[in-house]
Design brief:
Elements: H1 3-10, H2 12-19, H3 22-28, H4 34-58, H5 67-91, H6 102-117, H7 120-142, H8 152-159, H9 161-180, H10 183-209
Helix pairs in contact: 2-10, 3-7, 4-5, 4-6, 4-10, 6-7, 7-8, 7-9, 7-10, 8-9
This protein binds (4-amino-2-methylpyrimidin-5-yl)methyl dihydrogen phosphate (MP5).
């Protein structure tokens, strides 16, 4: 079994918990409140923005054949930001003066630290886990959400064929990096896979409960 599949198997209960999060289920069933969805949109906009320096920060450690793929991902993320702004405009979601919530801030710091302080393979695990998490999460939403929903373009973005191809590519490369890694590094990659999944769950939870900075608001 490939390393990526092994990791998914190992943390299956956590992964399933993510996929059954009420944010996803209520979005799938068209029951999510506009305000709750807007909270996710505002926070995820900031997350996607931060993902650009995260990827850029991986490039100095990347093998030559990963430069073009990373560059295409940065271009994809810039388009994604356009999608958020376009949807916000179309649905009247206010995107001005947004600040990262505590959970989002922590996740973003984790991304930056991964790019700077982990090995390339470790940072790649974080990238793979986050992208796979979004692909699988939005596939859950796709099972029920009407194509007429204003949120459907997000389903198309992350659950569509292009993104599926990108995640499959990441998985192959992730497995290749794990094969080349020693036991200690593979162990660290496994930890990072689990941690990233926990951040993904925390992110849905933060959006669902609109939680901001503890002790302040
Ligand atoms: C992604 C995302 C997917 N947009 N937000 C979170 C919290 N996790 C993963 O990443 P991308 O960079 O939008 O494809």
């Amino acid at each position: 079994m490939s390393f990526s599949k092994q990791q998914l198997d190992r943390i299956r209960p956590l992964w399933d918990r993510m996929l059954s999060h009420p944010f996803l289920i209520e979005t799938r069933d068209g029951r999510i409140s506009d305000e709750t969805f807007a909270t996710w949109m505002r926070q995820d906009y900031l997350f996607v923005e931060a993902a650009i320096p995260f990827i850029a920060g991986m490039i100095p450690k990347a093998p030559r054949d990963h430069w073009e793929p990373h560059q295409s991902v940065i271009a994809m993320l810039l388009k994604e930001l356009d999608l958020f702004r376009e949807r916000a405009e179309a649905t009247g979601v206010d995107m001005s003066d947004i600040q990262p919530s505590f959970t989002n801030h922590a996740y973003i710091q984790f991304l930056m630290a991964a790019a700077q302080r982990e090995s390339y393979a470790g940072a790649y695990t974080v990238l793979y886990a986050a992208e796979k998490a979004y692909h699988d999460s939005w596939k859950v939403v796709r099972e029920g959400l009407s194509e007429d929903s204003p949120w459907w373009p997000f389903v198309e973005n992350w659950a569509g064929d292009d993104f599926a191809g990108y995640v499959a590519y990441l998985e192959t490369e992730h497995d290749r990096l794990a094969e080349e890694a020693g036991e200690g590094l593979r162990q660290r990659m496994a930890e990072l896979f689990e941690l990233t999944t926990k951040y993904e769950i925390a992110f849905w939870e933060m959006a669902y409960t609109s939680s901001d900075w503890p002790g302040i608001s």
